[in-house]
Amino acid sequence: MALPAPAVSVVVPLYNKERHVARAIQSVLNQVFGDFELIVVDDGSTDGSVEVVKTFDEPRIRLVHREHVNSAGGHAARNLGITTARADFIAFLDADDEWLPGHLATLTRLSGKYPQCGAYASGYAVVGPDGRRWVHASDGIPASPWEGVIPSYFRSAPTHPVWTSATAVPKRVFDAVGLFPVGVSQGGDLDMWCRIALAYPICFCTRLGAVYHKDADNRVCLLNRPLCEYGHVRVIRDALRAGSVPPDQQREALEFIAFSQLEIAGRNISAGHHRRARQLLLSCRGTRKYARGWWRLMLQTLLPPGWPARLKAARHTMRNLAGCHE
Questions:
Q1: Looking at the structure, do residues 161 and 301 belong to the same domain, yes or no?
Q2: Which long-range contacts (CB under 8 A, 24 or more apart) does 296-302 make?
């Protein structure tokens, strides 16, 4: 006889997080809302991560394996968890982060109160490498305590109100907008939230539900690979061209594109790819909100690579020359 489906499927992608995965799993088991299954998707870990998972004697945990493919990115494991989930409501937690005990209770309550939404997110705290902890704040979100539909996702998006480890999505939404993009090292989560925001309202609760640990091993965001453009920029641009962005949100969508282009342009400047940075900046030259940052970065692209070091060396030489004439 088949067991009844749980109310929530929790998906935890796992790749070489031996030091952290026990904390993540225990934080799920500590939830006051207990009607869930926990799907740990091992993405071909080569350390002791899988052995740590197996130490938990808990029937709600399912360990799923897939072969690790570098070009697939971390979202392939997350997608496997989605497709194997037994519940119609799917929550996500990265293996190096953790939940607070009331997180699932908050998200399931929101899904019942705001059934029209495509994603449900809670507030979260951030712990830096030095152990300092602070509450993440997002623009365009009413002051705490508050819950409801985010007034304008694209206005709030640059400050990341929706974070994967603090978010749950109904399975029907994935059926409508598709799964996480495979083959990208960064920005795949933003790609997903933008696709959802273009089709559904997004619900948010300021109550803290998760903790983002920035000291974790093997974080994808630490991999400095120059990129031409984030996937979510193309998603928004295509939606604007198709006329599927409401008129009152078009300017905010354009400004979010500009924010994203400035961010990746700055990374390219740091890596010495000035021409690529200029191309990105020219694609958003009409920005109003980020005009000052646009001009600052554009000026940097016109200077020769390595100019900060050259300027520092020139100043050092001038000081030495001045000392010789004293």
A1: no
A2: 297/262, 297/265, 297/266, 297/269, 300/269, 300/274, 301/265, 301/269, 301/274, 301/275, 301/277, 302/274
Please give the Cα distance from 321 to 6 (Å, whole number).
75
For residues 139 and 184, membership in a common domain is answered with: yes
The amino acid present at 112, given as its one-letter code, is: G
With 0-12 / 13-18 / 19 or more C-beta atoms within 10 angstroms meaning exposed / middle / buried, residue 225 is: exposed
Strand (E) or helix (H) holding 98: strand 98-99
Helix axes 247-270, 231-242, angle to 10 degrees: 150
How far apart are the C-alpha atoms of 271 and 171, rounded to whole Å?
39
87, 161: one domain: yes
Phi-psi category of residue 157: left, alpha or beta, with phi > 0 → left and psi -120 to 50 → alpha: alpha
Cβ count within 10 A of residue 201: 16
Q: Total structural domains in the chain?
A: 2
Task: Please name the residue that has the structure tokens 């705290």.
Answer: 125
For each of the chain's 326 residues, which pLDDT tens digit applies? 567 899 999 999 999 999 999 999 999 999 999 999 999 999 999 999 999 999 999 999 999 999 887 756 679 999 999 999 999 999 999 999 999 999 999 999 999 999 999 999 999 999 999 999 999 999 999 999 999 999 999 999 999 999 999 999 999 999 999 999 987 767 789 999 999 999 999 999 999 999 999 875 544 444 455 567 899 999 999 999 999 999 999 999 999 999 999 999 999 998 888 999 999 999 999 999 999 999 999 999 988 766 555 556 656 655 665 555 45
Q: Which two tokens stand for residue 213?
A: 């640990």
Tell me how far apart the alpha carbons of residues 29 and 99 are, in angstroms, rounded to a whole number: 10
User: 323 lies in a domain?
Assistant: no
Q: In the 8-state DSSP scheme, what is residue 74?
A: T
Range of the domain at 260: 234-307
Residues in Cβ contact with 291 at an 8 Å cutoff, skipping those fewer than 6 apart:
none
Query: Which pair of structure tokens corresponds to residue 225?
Result: 């690979």
